[in-house]
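ping. complex inputs:
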Amino acid sequence: MYTNEMLESMKKVEAARSANAVLEPRRMTAEEKETLLATYHPDYKQGEFAVLQIGANKGEKVPTELAELLQANSRINPAEIDLSKVDYDVDVLIIGGGGAGASAAIEADNNGAKAMIVTKLRIGDANTMMAEGGIQAADKENDSPAIHYLDAFGGGHFAAKPELLYKLVTEAPEAIQWLNNLGVEFDKDENGVMITTHGGGTSRKRMHAAKDYSGAEIMRTLRDEVLNRQIPVVDFTAAIELILDENGKAAGAVLMNMETHEILIARAKTVIIATGGAGRLHYQGFPTSNHYGATADGLVLGYRAGAKLLYADTLQYHPTGAAYPEQIFGALVTEKVRSLGAKLINVNGEAFMHPLETRDVSAASIIRECSDRGNGVHTPDGIGVWLDTPMIELKNGEGTIEKRIPAMMRMFGKYGIDIRKEPILVYPTLHYQNGGLDITADGMTNIENLYVAGEAVGGIHGRNRLMGNSLLDIIVFGRNAGKNASSKSKDVTLGALTLEHVNKFAKEQAEAGIKTDVVSPKLLPNYARRK
Ligand code: MEZ
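pong. complex structure:
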């Protein structure tokens, strides 16, 4: 299966490893990082971005693929929608069935509100489920939320909204306890103390994990809690347009059954967008680690209704997507593999970077190694660098891989690759949307009664996110949105429902001379072969 070039290179990796000749490269200086990012990181490729011509962020650049969807046609003709026929009437409508949506629903339910989740797939079909390596919280003696803040603020290029990041780090320890009490099986030592590791850019070991199934374990627990409480979940039903009331406040959504295309109306006193990320838009042709439904729907719904975006021009390319074999191209190889001691090695068997630089720097460094430096390993379908997994057991002892990263062992094992004995090939994969809808610390957008939580939010992490701060933000900001939206719903008296904002947006589109056949939200990727 391996080509001769791959086998030759693998021998060099093994030789350097057994001779203990793999040097640990120093961390890059700030100036080196800046130059590296500007030259190799996909966010800096100006030709891949378009300037928005309409909407709340008119004049700002976003990825071309996103601009197309943000400025596309609605899936509905408002004149054909009967808003007097209400199918669901709730206090809090939650759009999205991932970790943020489920956390919001639980807290809204705790607050006595009538909450409902609507999701275009099933509850748990979400990026939460795909997260592997862990969730950060500064809850050890040598750590503090202040140190967590500094790590994340620096890692995000000092661009995070301070009040959002403050909330994230100060509420992190309690979020872990909340999950633990709900039943998440975190890894613990023989004394019952949670085991924590480093991630890229962390100055303390604060990554809590459930092996390398952390997101799946968290999602399993949250889903059970939602279902046990009998919170209504309307699945295979997409929100395709927000509904406002006559005073311009969020008041529900137009829903579409994904199978029958039947249109349904949900009226709500408050609405929470928790629709997740955008990996399935495959920005710049990158593969993705995201789940099948990650198509930026929430950004489109919010934008068409007048909500503002923040940092929608910044994406996260996880440094280690699987580059080989083809069947798992782009799948996540958790950062925990590097936390446990595996190094990134080029075609010549040399460690070319410190393994725990922040993600944007690591991804750019791998791209440089595989492009201008000519040090990538060619596979039958692409290129990558080695992640030397056998180092993990040399460093931590036999059995570590099976115990700490069994999902990785199984994923590669299916294709005959034993990661305890052979290194694996990796290349950056589209992983996370750093930007999204702009919120205040209470979770609300510039549209009254419209809240956002999870990956659809922009500004929590700035222009780059550290590992494990996303599982954390879906919990902290999911719960926050659920609490605040449910409290707010108690004081809301809805005015007449309207879709006038959809007409207004279409008018803006026409006035700007935008002619397009594209309809949005996209809902599902289109992988059909074209003739
Ligand atoms: O936060 C993440 O994106 C994460 C935990 C990913 C990983 O490498 O496991």
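The longest strand covers residues 263-273.
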